[in-house]
Specification:
Elements lengths: L10 E4 L2 H8 L8 E4 L9 H11 L4 E4 L13 H13 L5 E4 L2 E3 L3 E6 L5 H18 L3 E4 L13 H12 L2 E5 H11 L3 H6 L6 E7 L2 E4 L2 E3 L8 H14 L4 E4 L7 H18 L5 H7 L1
Parallel strand pairs: 1-2, 1-12, 2-3, 3-4, 4-7, 7-8, 8-9, 9-12
Antiparallel strand pairs: 5-6, 10-11
């Protein structure tokens, strides 16, 4: 049995502005928690601000940041971090996470760029994560990201992620789809990669759809339904680490709400199947 304490539980859905209206009068029973990017909501008032407040007062929320630029060359924007903290406190947000990437260099790049997998970068990023945690007055989670090039790599992706998690002493937002995407794009075994992660650091998980550009190139879009192979990988994650809270991301090409909620319900179904199983990682640890 999994006895860890998570910030939220069950199955969640990423709340996008396009969903504010359509979800308003729906039965949200399948949704246990929601997630927003605070970057898109800080300072937003009026009708939109009131609409968000209605949701944050209705159910638990987590936040997933977009522009902290943990691996960026410029100093951390500490003023922005303090604004994030006020947003998290104001909406009683249970957990804050960010991407293990960077998005600024003399300005905003409007994309999530890969951090070089080097020992120097491990210490650089970890120090910035620790500083962000101090300013936010809470532990944060970092997400394993999709990437399409690995410039200057001296470590493998799994070595880099594990080293940052250890050095920063932070949590892991486990994105199952990103593992699948990277396994195809970079030619590694997704299950082997998954098994190499520190399951005890997982705070919650992401699952999403993607776009097949070619047989050996997948683009992480969050614009389509989750494919069968990714659902299977989520099951393997529960088998390895026990059931953890998992959120469905969908950023555009929204299907009818019943279809969206059916995917959230599928997370519940898989969680239920694995709820009573002893995690394999725990078995291996005891052995």
């Amino acid at each position: 049995m999994n006895h860890r304490v998570f910030p939220v539980s069950g199955a969640g859905l990423g709340l996008r502005r396009a969903l504010l209206g359509p979800l308003q009068d729906e039965d949200l029973t399948p949704i246990d928690f929601m997630e927003v990017a605070p970057d898109n909501w800080i300072g937003v008032g009026g009708r939109l601000g009131r609409s968000l407040r209605q949701y944050t007062e209705r159910m638990p929320f987590v936040c997933h940041g977009l522009s902290l630029s943990l691996g960026g060359p410029e100093p951390l924007d500490e003023t922005f971090i303090r604004r994030i903290r006020r947003f998290l406190d104001g909406h009683r947000v249970r957990m804050y996470t960010e991407h293990l990437s960077y998005c600024t260099d003399g300005g905003h790049l409007y994309d999530l760029m890969p951090i070089p997998f080097t020992e120097e970068a491990v210490y650089y990023v970890a120090e910035r994560i620790r500083r962000a945690q101090d300013l936010l007055d809470r532990r944060i989670g970092i997400e394993n990201v999709s990437y399409y090039a690995a410039p200057g790599a001296e470590l493998s992706e799994i070595e880099f992620i594990n080293a940052v998690l250890h050095e920063a002493d932070c949590d892991l937002l486990l994105d199952v789809n990103n593992i699948f995407v990277n396994s195809v794009n970079h030619g590694y075994d997704a299950l082997e990669f998954l098994a190499g992660l520190p399951g005890e650091r997982i705070c919650y998980g992401h699952i999403a759809g993607h776009y097949n550009e070619a047989e050996d190139l997948i683009v992480d879009t969050h614009g389509s339904a989750v494919i069968p192979d990714v659902w299977v990988l989520l099951e393997r994650a529960y088998e390895l680490f026990g059931v953890f809270p998992t959120l469905l991301e969908r950023d555009f090409n929204f299907p009818p709400i019943p279809e969206l909620l059916a995917e959230v319900s599928r997370i519940h179904e898989i969680q239920h199947r694995w709820a009573s199983h002893e995690p394999k990682a725990a078995e291996k640890h005891r052995a």
